[in-house]
Hints:
This protein has helices at 13-20, 30-59, 66-89, 101-133, 144-163, 187-222, 229-264, 272-297, 299-318, 341-346. Helix content is 67%, strand content 0%. It is mostly helical. It is globular and about 65 Å long.
Amino acid sequence: MLSNTCEAYNKSVLFFYNETGKPISSEWRSQDFVVVGLGIPICIFIILANMMVIAAFIINRHFHYPIYYLLGNMAAADLFAGVSYLYLVFHTGPWTIKLTMNEWFIRGALINMSLTASVVNLLAVAVERHQTIFTMQLHSTMTKWRVVMLIVFIWLTAIVMGLVPIMGWNCVCDLSTCCSVAPLYSRSFLMFWALLNLLAFFIMVAVYTRIFIYVRRRSQEMSPHTDQPSHNQTVISLMKTMSMILGAFVICWTPGLVILLLDGLSCSKCEVLKYEKYCLVLAECNSLVNPIIYSFRDKDMRTTFKRILCFPWRRMHQHEGPSGIRFESVKTGAPPEKSSIFSSSFEPDARQSILSV
Length: 357
């Protein structure tokens, strides 16, 4: 935790902002109203959209495979990001001045955790795809227990990385190392954080590019000699979906990480504070894009979404007649049929989801 022996330990958050030259106001400005006014509905939409994605992965049995468990965990990371951004919205602008040091570090830790969870999860997906694709299989033979342990490891890593600054890697005890974008963070930590994630991005792009090239080449070689061309198309479609998710992630987060890296390098001519807000908004949009990609690429996902949204309506009218009076139909001379709300509303189609239109 923070050391109480530091000279600036008892200083306010405002002190660090003034020390680094980052503008902060105790009064509401027009840009503050815009941030809060747009941030709240966007965060709520991110939370609801990713809750639907997680529910779809749980309900549809065709998604009960390791790759979809990891994609579901990716949606959980996006859901956590939505909660983190919502917390940030209610602790930004004039509210920032009222924050204690620990509250300020918690605000940053939530964002760091969401990014780490997403990055490590994408790395896990890359490993899973590498394990299966090079044997031209659709799904991994990884057991559910291993998947659960992998997901637990992902979140433990995210928690540790999020708590690193508050555990001591900050500038509270050395004001000369404070950065501009995050005034209580050390420039060395910002450089480490940015380089680590950019390196992870490069590795993931390289791995997915290699896998995609391999799949296309093998598919072209096997198509004249195989009786299951749909299997090859399924593998390619799934890789296209994963490439879109990875591409959106890299596009949305890279500008922000570059800003952090430049700030860590003390680039005074880069005007990092000028572009900071835009990069944060772009990073926030990533958690909004993934549910759109899922629904755009997968017909099964779209169908499951519709069933989830229509479930209250179907349940209300399941036992109502034309007059609106509830009744239970009784059939004579035939054995009673199995009745289930979930089976009538959420039973998946008898085909395999391929995450493609």
